[in-house]
């Protein structure tokens, strides 16, 4: 079900490809146009087909999005039923159109039309085979996995604890036994039995089977290849490109890992944190060890503390969830973006409703492709969620900026762009900015830069290997390298290899630890976040240059820069109408993704870390 928010929920249906352009090589001999499906198709036929698909998108997209919204903000038997039904309908139509689009494979088409035809083929997140019943079975499985994840119950100290509270506890609790308990209980949900005795793990395996069959019918090797095909590159080249980017930032990750492990060893001792092993995944301040910002206090440089904690500042200044969102809006307004519509405030879910089940994982929605944009969060007053608010608003402003594009181009330049917009803005939450909005009295001086950079690295650099391995795992699932018996071993192999983390207790093959992360049962592809973590630094660097900033990148805030806002908006308005290198070039002047901006941003920290680590044994 999570997939059928066709072109609505941010990133859920990103569909980009330029293999299309490469494939459009053999012009068809001119034939009179007609309705005979066996005759060679003409450009006119393609135009008529595209118009039909776009009409359907306009109509069905809104209908589907409204059902999915109700389901996500009020999970019941009935809304699951509706969600599953509309998802199945969407998949059936999507598959039908994708198969029909193949007719035009060899036809020489203008670039824009060729791009649309390729999007029609790539548009489904999870295709089903055409045989009757397959789309419905797939939708039922996905609805169930999503709702199981969102509503799974966990008992702690005799009480049922909300999942968002458990997530928050991973950042604040410092007792390793307690952390282990929370971490382990969280991962009971994916192996707990559904009403009919099956588990999420079995559902996942069946999902992969059906969707792979669907992908093969459409001419892709498997679902993983289909996901990789959305980046205007052949799938194998895209995978190599992500590896190249990772190699650029890996030295920084390795140094950060080494330092963090040493500091955790000081905190918890050799038994809990041996110095030559991967780090225990429950000690890093986050349920998935994907962002380590919450253990800043444990690893902070001694003399460089910036002297403020954003969570504390928000709390002591009386911020509530709404004020946090208003502050995020204020940033975008300062760049020249129109304020959010009244309906945003009336219809968003900003805090967790107390009396019903909802999907708490944050998302941004565009219900009608016009102005009905919203966020759905279970906001807590803390720094993590302040970041996430900017992240989600980035999706909403992007959606609004490209609303005048034709339906098939109403999307990010690629999935990574969509995820990078709000994050790029959040990189401008500097001390100077916090002072300007009255949250901070005094800016810390340059001697505190290492502390500021450390906080940022714990948030961003720690994420990168996780951002990469999530889909590496899924690529192995979809290409058959992993089977249900090896799902969990494969997961921990990648977690260890890329992140250098290990589970707090042995995890045998019966567990399904990937299922403890929203995007796995939710089937949201994840390489987009890895790409976004590279792109946001490229955007930030370009934006700071446009704003005339000459100081260090981590002190640059583009707050208030109308010029940057205008340039940024020009890129956002393009939506998916052009291959992403053109969108990137429009804003940054380069057509390449490049980890250099990350390296430059963190250069002073890298130097400091190397000094700290010089007598330590790094690696795992
Ligand atoms: O899922 C999200 C957003 C919604 S698109 C809240 N993010 C990833 C995650 O939480 O795992 C943002 C960062 C990575
Ligand atoms: Zn996002």
Automatic annotation (TrEMBL):
Binding-site residues for Zn(2+) 2, renumbered to this chain: 391, 395, 419
Q: Which residues form a coiled coil?
A: none
| Chain sites annotated for binding Zn(2+) 1 | 391, 395, 419
Q: Which keywords, in A-to-Z order, does the entry hold?
A: Disulfide bond, Glycoprotein, Metal-binding, Signal, Zinc
What cellular component terms from Gene Ontology apply here?
membrane
Q: GO molecular function: any one? A: peptidyl-dipeptidase activity
Residues forming the catalytic site:
392, 519
Please state the span of the N-terminal signal peptide per the UniProt entry: 1-22
The intrachain disulfides are 360-378, 544-556
The Gene Ontology biological process annotation of the record reads: proteolysis
Query: Per UniProt, where does chloride bind?
Result: 231, 528
The source's superkingdom equals Bacteria
What PANTHER family does the database record attribute to this sequence?
A: ANGIOTENSIN-CONVERTING ENZYME
What name has this protein been given in UniProt?
Peptidyl-dipeptidase
Q: Which organism is it from?
A: Hyphococcus luteus
């Amino acid at each position: 079900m999570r997939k059928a928010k066709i072109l609505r929920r941010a990133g859920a249906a990103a569909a980009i490809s330029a293999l299309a352009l490469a494939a459009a090589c053999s012009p068809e001999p001119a034939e009179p146009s007609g309705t005979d499906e066996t005759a060679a198709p003409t450009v006119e036929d393609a135009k008529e087909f595209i118009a039909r698909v776009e009409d359907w998108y306009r109509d069905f997209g809104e209908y589907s999005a409204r059902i999915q919204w109700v389901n996500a903000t009020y999970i019941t038997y009935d809304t699951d039923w509706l969600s599953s039904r509309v998802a199945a309908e969407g998949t059936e139509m999507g598959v039908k159109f994708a198969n029909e689009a193949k007719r035009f494979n060899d036809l020489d088409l203008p670039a824009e039309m060729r791009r649309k035809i390729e999007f029609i083929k790539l548009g489904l997140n999870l295709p089903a085979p055409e045989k009757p019943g397959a789309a419905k079975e797939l939708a039922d499985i996905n609805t169930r996995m999503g709702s199981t994840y969102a509503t799974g119950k966990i008992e702690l100290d005799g009480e049922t604890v909300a999942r968002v509270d458990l997530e928050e506890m991973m950042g604040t609790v410092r007792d390793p036994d307690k952390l282990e308990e929370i971490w382990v209980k969280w991962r009971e949900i994916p192996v707990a039995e559904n009403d009919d005795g099956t588990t999420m793990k079995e559902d996942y395996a069946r999902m992969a089977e059906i969707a792979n069959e669907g992908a093969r019918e459409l001419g892709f090797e498997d679902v993983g290849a289909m996901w990789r095909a959305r980046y205007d590159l052949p799938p194998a080249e895209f995978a190599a490109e992500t590896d190249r980017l990772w190699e650029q930032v890996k030295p920084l990750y390795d140094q950060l890992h080494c330092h963090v492990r040493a500091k955790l060893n000081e905190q918890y001792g050799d038994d809990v944190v041996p110095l030559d092993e991967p780090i225990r995944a429950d000690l890093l301040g986050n349920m998935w060890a994907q962002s380590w910002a919450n253990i800043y206090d444990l690893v902070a440089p001694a003399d460089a503390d910036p002297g403020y904690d954003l969570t504390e500042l928000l709390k002591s200044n009386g911020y509530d969830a709404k004020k946090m969102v208003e502050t995020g809006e204020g940033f975008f307004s300062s760049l020249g973006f129109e304020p959010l519509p009244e309906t945003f405030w009336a219809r968003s879910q900003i805090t967790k409703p107390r009396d019903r089940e909802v999907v708490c994982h944050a998302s941004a929605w565009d219900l009608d492709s016009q102005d009905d944009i919203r966020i759905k969060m279970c906001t807590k007053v803390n720094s993590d969620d302040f970041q996430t608010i900017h992240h989600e608003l980035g999706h909403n402003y992007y959606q609004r900026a490209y609303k005048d594009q034709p339906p098939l181009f109403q999307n990010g330049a690629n999935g990574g762009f969509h995820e990078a917009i709000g994050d790029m803005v959040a990189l401008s939450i500097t001390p100077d900015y916090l002072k300007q909005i009255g949250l901070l009295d005094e800016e810390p001086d340059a001697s505190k830069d290492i502390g500021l950079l450390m906080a940022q690295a714990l948030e961003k650099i720690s994420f990168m290997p996780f951002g990469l391995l999530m889909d590496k795992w899924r690529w192995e699932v979809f290409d058959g390298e992993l089977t249900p018996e090896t799902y969990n071993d494969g997961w921990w192999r990648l977690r260890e290899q890329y992140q250098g983390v290990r589970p707090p207790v042995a995890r045998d093959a019966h567990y399904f630890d990937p299922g403890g992360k929203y995007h796995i049962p939710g089937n949201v592809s994840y390489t987009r976040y890895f790409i976004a973590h590279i792109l946001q630094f490229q955007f930030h660097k370009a934006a700071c240059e446009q704003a005339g900033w000459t100081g260090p990148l981590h002190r640059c805030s583009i707050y208030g820069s109308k010029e940057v806002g205008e340039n940024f908006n020009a890129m956002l308005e393009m939506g998916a109408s052009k291959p992403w290198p053109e969108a990137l070039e429009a804003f940054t002047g380069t057509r390449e993704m490049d980890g250099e901006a990350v390296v430059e941003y963190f250069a002073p920290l890298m130097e400091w870390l190397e000094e700290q680590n010089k007598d330590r044994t790094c690696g795992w």
